[in-house]
Sequence to fold (423 residues):
Amino acid sequence: MISTTDLEQLAEIELQKEEEEQGCLADHPSTPPTSSFNPDTSHPYYDVARHGILQVTGDDNYGRKLIIFSSCCLPPSHQLNHRRLLEYLKYTLDQYVEMDYTVVYFHYGLRSSNKPSLRWLREAYNEFDRKYKKNLKALYVVHPTNFIRIVWNIFKPLISHKFGKKLTYVNYLAELRDHLNYDQLIIPPDVLRHDERLRAAQKHGSSPSVKTPPPRPPLPTQQFGVSLQYIREKNKEAMIPPVISQTVMYLKEKGLKTEGIFRRSARVQLIKDVQKLYNLGKPVSFEQYGDVHVPAVILKTFLRELPEPLLTYPVYDQVLDIVRVESSLRVTRCKEIVESLPEHHFIVLKYLLSFLHMVSLESIINKMSPSNLACVFGVNLVWPPQGSVSLSALTPINIFTEILIEHHDTVFGSRRPAGQVLP
Fold:
């Protein structure tokens, strides 16, 4: 029986080997992509947040909030207070642990000079009590090494079987496409280069590379992953996409008083099955599933898979600038931004936000205030043309969305297009 001490020494040896194989990485951390990283100096944990170690990038394919930890962004240990790092992790997670969430851990770049101690890891695991562990639905460890597997064995006695089943090792970035919106992930350049080296080495091995077939044109009945215009043309000029109108209709009748509506995920295969039915033009009856979280997740998934966000790309920077607008003028500014949208986008947005306003009116029962709904829906309504929503962008996006929900009548009241539809 190998002792814990022996395993810890073995882990250190493996980490040193990895450093040598990777060519003795420099002591400075990787720099996060500047296009998506701009921490606010007033952030209570700016000293930690500025390194870009942690990012929140919207939802995964199943409607769960996505949180990314990048080891290569960890500075040398003498430059970072690891107690502060733990507090920052909890501070960030506290904003999301009441809903289902997913964690992606990029292991590449962890080295002797920047790694937290195993004692720190134990402390962190113990401090992340049940509220953090219960709603963590998946943990993806990208580019795992022997060091990771040894550390996992050290912690195995502490980790429940149920929690252990949430772990998935991901050897190549491309494998994440099965679970996440890969194109919106914030991936440090060092991790991308490491993945390229691994794939190049694989190609020179015995495994033949598999050619990716060209993308197929969408079906005439396609609902997910196609534009609002495409859906409208293929659905007898209906202004509101069937997925939105049908999920809203069901949730309006059955889900307004459900506590935590939109905060929970649903069974992955079930969501895939419902999407397939929609894409094939077959009828969907949410009644048969007996779970209001199914249409709730389907609605969020539909919005997230639009080729262009409902609020459109041109207004992204305007949304981020809302924090620079005086509080008393923000409702007026939001109204101006929304009224600048193309007519079809405005009509669909007004329909959706009218419904979310209804949900918020039942917040005493369902616990979904405008603020809570904004936290869930903001990143599904707007995102940048390239990359993903950064942690620093979440605050203005959530503020903007909260105003749309809370002040719905003022923001949407003046513009009444001929094709307007309300839930």
Remarks:
- The longest strand covers residues 136-142.
- The radius of gyration is 23 Å.
- Residues 343-361 form the longest helix (19 residues).
- Confidence is low (pLDDT under 50) at residues 24-28, 206-212.
